[in-house]
Amino acid sequence: MAYVITQACLDVKERACVSVCPVDCIYEGDESDRMLFIHPEQCINCGACEMECPHFAIYSEEDVPEKLRAFVTIQRLFFEEPAKAREELNRLYPRSSCGVL
Ligand code: SF4
Ligand code: SF4
Fold it and tell me: What pLDDT does 32 receive?
């Protein structure tokens, strides 16, 4: 595991990180995915994405704050069982109901 995308990317997903990754290891499953994920085996730990993210969503794994540790697991799960990762993400961070009356 190297770098991890966390909560601040959720439902934002503006993709500034994607263009600076030298190994193209930041992925979006499909349009419905609520955030992007870094492939834990492909990431070469360069740190470029962390500096580029305007929302400070990216940390190296050892620096992920305690309250955001679930994203370490969800990110890995996304590349093994994406449906389960999406389910877990929606369980822990339900979609906002803003605007829905
Ligand atoms: S730049 Fe930050 S907020 Fe934008 S997609 Fe990448 S991690 Fe998410
Ligand atoms: S740390 Fe470097 S290699 Fe890893 S996802 Fe970020 S930009 Fe890509």
Answer: 84
The model carries a pTM of: 0.92
Interval between CA 72 and ligand 1 midpoint (Å)? 16
Report whether residue 57 contacts ligand 2, using a CB cutoff of 6 Å. Answer: no
Tell me the three state secondary structure of residue 75: helix
Overall average pLDDT of the 50-72 stretch: 97
Q: For residue 24, give its domain range.
A: 3-92
- Domain-located, residue 97: no
Q: Which amino acid is at 80?
A: E
Instruction: Count up the domains in the chain and report the number.
Output: 1
Say how far residue 101 (Cα) sits from the centre of its chain.
29
Q: Kindly report the CATH number assigned to the domain that includes residue 21.
A: 3.30.70.20
Whether the CB of 34 sits within 6 Å of ligand 1: no
